[in-house]
Amino acid sequence: MTSSTTTTTSTISSTTSSSTSSTTSSSTSSTTSSSTSSTTSLTTSSSTTSTTSSSTTSTTITSTSQISSTVTDSSTLVTSLLIKVRSFGTITRAGDPIVGIYNTSAGMSTGCINGSFSSSTEMPPEAIDNLTSTKYLNFGSTGGFGIEAPAPGVDTGFYVTPTISDNSIATALLFATANDSPNRDPITVTLEGSNSNALDIGSSWTLIYSGSTGIDPTTDPGRQQYVTQQNFSNAIAYKSYRLLVTSQRGSDWAVQYSEAQIIGYY
Length: 266
What we know:
Largest sheet: 6 strands, mixed
Number of strands: 18
Region (Disordered): 1-65
Structural class: mainly beta
Radius of gyration: 25 Å
CATH superfamily of the largest domain: Galactose-binding domain-like
């Protein structure tokens, strides 16, 4: 996990008198000018600290602004504003409310919920538990034990309501492969967002991303391995997310993956 914290502090002071100078200082340039009405100084400083561990990225940004104004009669007005800006990292966490679905495609209402899973340890919560030793497996409507289908995992997935924030902004997906059966790897997916409570209604969802999971369609990246994070542009905050598989590597009984993390600002 890479974790970094950035703090920015700005101080603006203004004094009314007979002469004025303006100075702006930063890490790269300094400019001085004079006029006849006021004195203004702007100082900007920033500091960054980073800590590195294994996999997930998390960044916290905090902005503090202080404005001080002094007038000639010596009365002083000081206003301090503390504004916490969004943190960046994994939006989905273990324990978030999550529902497995199948027979469902982007923009459409939920076809079926939950469905058939191979065991109680291969359920939807295992897709967001931050453990590559577990996995989420879904047979869809055409697969099953010993029942091979061309792409049983297509139109399967889940919807989740992250508890870390009720208005997060998703900007990336991070997948990890399961422990076996490469043909069950999801290759492409859609991600949608919703601010509605009617999560089984298709009109509640807005498409955010349609594309690769980061898993190579022709070369097995290995089992229980994180693949390349897939970044995308999005500036809209949502309360819930729906992820659906649109293709998998090959014919098998099911689709499966150990992690499908949604990443962004919260």
